Amino acid sequence: MTAPRDDARDDEPVVLDAVDDVVPPDEGGARGLRAITADEFSAVDALGGVRGMVEAVAPGLLFVVVYIASGQQLQPALISAAATAAIAVVARLVQRTPVTQAFSGVLGVGVGVLWAWNTGDAGDYFAYGLIVNAASLVGTLVTILVGWPLVGLVVGMLSNRGPLAGGSWAGAVEWRADRALRRRYALATWPWVAMFGLRLLVQLPLFLADQVVWLGTAKLAMGLPLTALTLWLSWMLVRGSGAPREPARPPRAP
What we know:
- The protein is 62% helix and 0% strand.
- It has 254 residues and is mostly helical.
- It is globular, with a radius of gyration of 20 Å.
């Protein structure tokens, strides 16, 4: 598979980064939303590249590893996770590379670390992630139920007739006038509902049972791999839809 084509103009990166990072990287790297509109799908690029994937996985992985290695001591695990996330941001600042994704990650890790440090409960390190997934599940489902599916909004924003191409904001939602496109985008949004729901179905019982190691393992296993699958499913369903179709024009009189 080849990398998705990036047709964005040089003056668009700030807006595109805002769209890409709707979800913190450690919750599934929503940076890949741009990949839904690409001609070719690349799981690595959709997840933020190799560096982005490492930054997303490393804090949670180190938390679990250090927690086990230290005999389930909370403070060393929290310090290792926080330090890893902070190093990722500092490295990007020093190298003057985009920091949006790293900042999103450090936000999630920081909230989890402070929460668990304050309560003394290792399971609370993962509470923020569960809340994010619950809110994402409800929010994404609502977009479908009210007829404004999330994937349709993303495709509209990133189409060549949307605001990112210099058009009006109305151009980003013209697809709603096409009933077939609206149904397709709603169908392409359901994998996201399923992903958030599946995470909660598996991880919430582990959280309530205080199974910290299994919870951390489940979070890692259902993070980037599940997000990549969801992105690919959405891409397959959206592929070929393109920008909203022009209405048919009557033939000219001879």
